[in-house]
Write a structure and sequence with these properties.
- The structure is a homodimer.
- Chain A is α/β, with parallel strands linked by helices.
- Chain A folds into five domains: about 1-130, Rossmann fold; about 155-295, Succinyl-CoA synthetase domains (Rossmann fold, 3-Layer(aba) Sandwich), CATH 3.40.50.261; about 305-460, Rossmann fold, CATH 3.40.50.261; about 495-570, ATP-grasp fold, A domain (Dna Ligase, domain 1), CATH 3.30.1490.20; about 575-690, D-amino Acid Aminotransferase, Chain A, domain 1 (2-Layer Sandwich).
- Helices cover about 35% and strands about 20% of the residues of chain A.
- In chain A, helix 14 links the parallel strand 16 (about 380-390) and strand 17.
- Chains A and B meet through helix 5, helix 8, helix 11 and helix 16 of A and helix 5, helix 8, helix 11 and helix 16 of B.
Chain lengths: ~700, ~700
């Protein structure tokens, strides 16, 4: 349990800077809680008044009898730190700071914010903010927030909760949810995050039984480990986390960093880590709300087989397109079941999408009969029904609902979403029957894709905890190719054989034994061997002496002060496909492992898969599969298929290596790894140690 | 003008199969037009009744006095053809057929449909359908349709019109538009398209001044030339066409072809042709409606520079991300203008996105001041303002609207969209002021991207008509590499030099002159030269004799009956990047030209650009730029940049070649074309003639 656990249900609230004017920042939360009848204690602190909004006012926090619980601070920035100290001295558990003028304004503000962080660390009081718009608990009517949204839209309790770094955007999400009829139980915004980060708020929400679905918004994550922890708690509790991480684009990232004064980190890594830990990332607020709404029945399909049943062939085509965009499987009905459906309705399209045609109008029972056939015979994990405006007609909508309710009661584990144009009343009746509905078929497909993702994430469960290998510390100083290869070979990675030749004579002798060889400068001080003219491929016994001399001379000219050990000689490896396998220490998430096809695939097409390290070989296999260029490893263009098991094992081992060395490594890269029909072999390696 | 021109405004309508029951297919259109007071003549045809729904009934079409105009047919399929004939004999201009049981049901139905097509061609009467849900003109209350949607939602005239191949989905689009408050002027569905295709309906709508925006839906296009023509008419009239072409996916295409009994054609080509001719393709109905709505002010921005002004930093980040997804330019404000904005409001983010912060609440004039600065100093082509729920507050929404109206009246050519959560009344007031608004910021960005696309398409105008070269007919019989190269070289394409050697001795002599050479089997009967063991690269004088003998022996073993002319010898071309340039005859759009990077880029990454042929060199340059792998041609990975002008010229010439030969060619491919720092050179070529 996070130490925030009681944040949402305090016994009392003290408001420093409480205002008698209910439209002012220090007056609004008071007014909200008085009007909505918060049933805990409310202690306005205002040294210039006896009462505030009709309640007895206190001159200071220390003047309040007994211990405090939740303290809200809405005084100018320079006065905030002493209030946090006073709150801590009165054993408050939570301090929330509305005041702005901290890190978002420059160096002076940053110093004041650091002071607040220090007090929180020293005293154990948990601080939300500063520069924070607040929070609410709609069930207990606890409204420590100055958003004016509350006045226009009284929060209705429900299973959904919101954690947002941005106050204004969090407020927008709340209001949009309210207008969409989605009840919000808890709403938390974190502002500048001097102490409590949005990740910990997600964790707090994930721990609670009364939260069925979490919507999260962040511009940056300050504590990647906490986020991972929060997402895994949510996964165990089967609580979907719908995540909007903004700042994907160059302009967006720049705007986000100037806005939150923190680095965004690499977007592709956020993307991978969120997916790896079971959170669904959205690009739009609409998608976020749609998915939260579709989560209401709390049915997360066990697989990706999707059945589509429509009264319009066109809608079926459109939905099949959208389903493919999301990688869902619009598998056909079994042939014999199709034949039986054709017997019922000769003009039906029985394959999937199943089209009951306008015959629907004459015989509504076609819907339950076909639906049942799809569930029993097609074995779909979920269905989408397209009924357009006819479901909104009183003559058809009500009996259709009856048929669907009757049919689906025998299939409690199967989700069915509906597409219909109807009035609010009919939509409400479908909702109450456990049938979320959408006006737009594409939105229904996207929501379905998310729910199927959650079903898979919940079924997969938390990844196995992998034992980190017990590796010796890295050798001192910078590591050359030879040292890097030796270190990685010792960690179980498949490295090409290499031998060091100090002289041309030794090089010839080695080339004679190995056959055609690759020859590279061996120097811990030269990282860019090709630039230094230090690489020769396909060297034979006859050319070995000259190649060795040229490489050494070239290297001395390129870097006169470099220590040169000689040339490193390896056999030429023929056939196979080049892959890059690497790992690096991400500032947010720590060690991450990456895999991609070499060269243009990585550099031009950005076709790279990331995961938080370490990963199992099975997870590594998933990384390979998600590469757009994966067909190249699977036999495209007449290539023999590569040994993907061996490659996955190598990715896993490199991830274990990176995780075991943790902070000691900035990056490690095997480039290329030659993926062969049998096994794989790293031909080069580079380890960059972290500057300490 | 299409001969459909009068379809939408007939003087009278005769309904064959008119029913007294207003809920039946033959009764509904009658009931719609009686209730809504269509002011043309209505002639029910029903031999078993004297009156139908209170109107005098006629026993047959021929029993009606004088000429007919529009004839609606709702009788069983086998009786339809004679009614079409009767209509034509009475000089009807249009026959619309509701009846199903035609091509969608199999061979017998197809024969009946072909008969209808034949009558249309012979008599000149235009036929809509069969299996068609109908059409409407909401202005004249002309409702030849049996959709029940009309009962639930009386059409409201407006500037938007709909052309849809699918009746049921067209009906869904209509109903969704109605619910979104979008007035629909004309609504046309085409069903089985025995005569009139959806493309001609788009053309009809594009010709009309009272149509400001066209929404189109199609599963297949039967007449690509008509579609192109329709889109260019729309472009000239500055009428945006928003196009939903479904069947993108494998399952979707399969469902579409079983549904419409016509081949969908290649999706990437639809995509390219729609873009080339100024139509915006959507994947969702919601996007279609959003864009049509945003077209209301009829302002199509002149460029892609987008200014974002918000009261939430987070919303700015989110919108900047979405703008980048669409390739819009969220360019920064000039430095000096930023400094001035900082003077007005020290905590503002003045760069773009511009954040006026919560200070907005205290000083609403910040909005017009900042907005004006963005238009004047930033020179943005369009703006999006993010006001979330505060615009919905009566205290703020009304003065904000006043400020915005006052500011924007001096910038009639600049579009501004708004993001706000508000009630219908406030939204209506913004709409009336020429300010479309969205609840979701991402949807506003997508609509803006479409409007900027239209602005560019309208400014570009119809592509130059290129004169086709006067080329000699292709030689008879299949063409080998040598013949293909000669034909293309004669058409001005840069082909590598080649010489034919009939014997090993000749091969050696040629190799001696050319230096290292490529040697390939020369046979018009062997298309797959590598498979036949018929290719050797880097052949020197010393190895030329053996290589030539091996190639010829290999080819004889591979294809004993093939005519073998000898070996074709070309100099090895070093350096540069391999590109594929080709053209083929598409069943829908005729000759199309394609360009892509070679090998894995084309086959695995599907990174190919298409256009309808012919294209100018400037258009060809645009094809190169849209390739994801384009950086490889522009100097990525330390490569010298390729001569893109020469490559574009080659693409253009190949497109002219393909267009000039039209139906004579199935496909032509230059693979590879080596793109060099100076010029480019095709190293191989293949022409496949069309089987006649």
């Amino acid at each position: 349990m996070t130490t925030l656990a009681d944040l949402l249900e305090p016994r009392s609230i003290a408001i420093v800077g409480a205002s008698d004017d209910p439209t002012r920042i220090g007056g609004r939360p008071l007014s909200h809680m008085i009007n909505q009848h918060f049933d805990g204690g409310i202690y306005p602190v205002n040294p210039r008044r006896d009462t505030v909004q009709g309640l007895r006012a206190y001159p200071s926090l220390t003047a309040i009898d007994g211990d405090l619980d939740f303290v809200l601070v809405a005084v100018p920035a320079p006065l905030v730190a002493e209030q946090v100290r006073a709150a801590a001295s009165k054993n408050a558990r939570t301090v929330m700071i509305f005041s702005s003028g901290f890190a978002e304004t420059g160096a002076e503000g940053t110093a004041m914010q650091d002071e607040v962080t220090r007090i929180a660390r020293e005293t154990g009081v948990r601080v939300i903010g500063p520069n924070c718009l607040g929070a609410f608990n709609s069930e207990t009517r606890f409204y420590p927030t100055f958003t004016s949204t509350i006045d226009r839209a009284t929060p209705q309790p429900g299973g959904i909760s919101i954690a947002s770094q941005s106050g204004a955007y969090g407020s927008h999400i709340y209001m949009a949810s309210h207008m969409a009829g989605l009840g919000i139980r808890y709403w938390l915004t974190t502002g500048n995050e001097a102490d409590v980060h949005v990740a910990e708020c997600i964790r707090l929400l994930a721990e609670r039984d009364d939260v069925h679905c979490i919507m999260a918004y962040a511009e940056s994550i300050k504590d990647g480990a906490m986020l991972v922890d929060a997402l895994e708690v949510a996964r165990v509790n089967r609580t979907p986390v719908i995540f909007m991480k903004v700042g994907r684009s160059e302009v967006g990232a720049q705007a986000a960093s100037s806005h939150t004064a923190s680095l965004a980190g690499e977007d592709a890594i956020y993307d991978a880590v969120l997916r790896q830990h079971g959170a669904w990332r959205v690009k739009s607020t609409e998608e976020m709300l749609d998915i939260a709404y579709a989560c209401r029945p709390r049915i997360y399909p066990a697989g990706k087989r999707l059945g589509l049943v429509t009264i319009s062939g066109g809608a079926g085509v459109l939905m099949a397109d959208a389903a493919e965009d999301h990688g869902l499987d619009v598998a056909p009905m079994p042939e014999d079941a199709q034949a039986e459906m054709k017997e019922i309705l000769p003009f039906a399209a029985p394959r999937n999408p199943v089209d009951v045609t306008a015959q629907f109008f004459n015989d509504l029972t076609l819907v339950p009969r076909f639906t049942k056939a799809m569930l029993d015979r097609g074995g779909y994990d979920a269905l989408i029904g397209f009924w357009t405006s006819v479901a909104g007609s009183p003559l058809l909508g009500t009996p259709l609902l009856g048929h669907l309710t009757e049919t689906m009661k025998d299939y409690r584990d199967r989700l069915i979403l509906h597409v219909m144009l109807t009035d609010d009343e009919m939509k409400r009746r479908y909702d109450e029957a456990g049938f979320p509905s959408f006006e737009d078929p594409t939105r229904a497909i996207t929501a379905m894709a998310a729910l199927m993702f959650f079903g898979e994430a919940f079924a997969n469960g938390t990844p196995d905890v992998l034992d980190l290998p017990d590796l010796p510390p890295l050798p001192g100083g910078p590591l050359g190719e030879r040292e890097a290869k030796a270190v990685l070979a010792a960690a179980g990675l498949p490295m090409v054989e290499d031998r060091l030749a100090a002289t041309a004579e030794e090089a010839v002798a080695i080339a004679r034994q190995m056959g055609p060889v690759a020859m590279k400068i061996a120097s811990p001080d030269i990282l860019h061997k090709t630039e230094a003219g230090g690489v020769r491929l396909g060297v034979t016994t006859g050319t070995a002496a000259a190649a060795c001399d040229e490489i050494m001379a070239g290297a001395r000219a390129y870097a006169p002060k470099a220590r040169i050990d000689g040339v490193l000689i390896s056999p030429m490896v023929t056939g196979g496909t080049d892959v890059i396998v690497g790992a690096k220490t991400d500032p947010v998430f720590g060690p991450v492992v990456m895999a991609g096809l070499g060269g243009v695939f990585t550099e031009v097409m950005k076709d790279i898969a990331f995961r938080r390290a370490p990963v199992s070989a099975a997870t590594a296999r998933g990384m390979i599969d998600e590469l757009k260029g994966a067909p190249l490893l699977k036999g495209a263009r007449g290539q023999p298929p590569a040994d993907l098991g061996a490659l996955a094992e190598a990715i896993s081992r490199l991830s274990l290596f990176a995780a075991a060395h943790g902070d000691a490594i900035e990056s490690v890269e095997m480039n290329p790894v030659r993926a062969l029909p049998g096994g794989c072999l790293a031909l080069d390696a580079l380890i960059i140690k972290r500057e300490v």
